[in-house]
């Protein structure tokens, strides 16, 4: 993509950065209030039968996903006009979704700054090994990678790991303010949910909260996975890496039904989001529709996306993802 075209494209999407307090407020109301109402309803339904509480909790997952999208936009400073307001909203919605604000914000911004850059993988993204790395890796490391990339581990065990372990600890190089933010998040979570377990009992507590958190976490990991894992995704060495190409060619346009776009806060328009993270979620669809060059992004339907589960390694020579079976046949290695 030529320099002038890339510059023009970024200029074309810039007008959509504008934050609408009206739209943001409406989205907060139609997300957080139903979430709270469903949690209360789940608690009341438990008195009738535990299965009703679980069903209600599963529905609440829809609004927990939307809450995470609000949290996500606050991390980018795109949801409200003043940064201090984004920080406050990010801390509140981060608590509700079990994500410490400062920790995740730093890691996610690192992901955006180097998405598709082969030397900047490993922070805030899905673990991806290249063919060369896998060939040179020890048997133990290849085994660990295979376990990590197993769909059951990634999407079923993943939400538990994310909520209970990954989000609870900071990196060694994290600054004191970030560490304090995570510690405070952990302490408040322990106090609040510990109190609820004591008052409600473990059975009722987990019937109300566990299905919601698990389903939302599983869908969230899937969305993050599919947005960058498709056959001809973009990865380049630092000398060849380009921010705009990484956004358009390395982030998918996930063509979902209208209702699912609403549930997921339009994050399926991921190519738009990576091109300009300052665009709030409710403006992503309009940006895609009105900026014609964005129509050339890789589009994936819901059915087509299921095939991406087979992609495990990135072949930096052929510029595409391949399966373990293809690797084994090509390089005669298990």
From TrEMBL:
The chain crosses the membrane at residues 21-46, 52-71, 152-171, 183-200, 205-225. Keywords: Membrane, Transmembrane, Transmembrane helix. The gene is des. Residues 49-294 form the Fatty acid desaturase domain. This is Fatty acid desaturase. It comes from the Bacteria. It comes from Staphylococcus gallinarum.
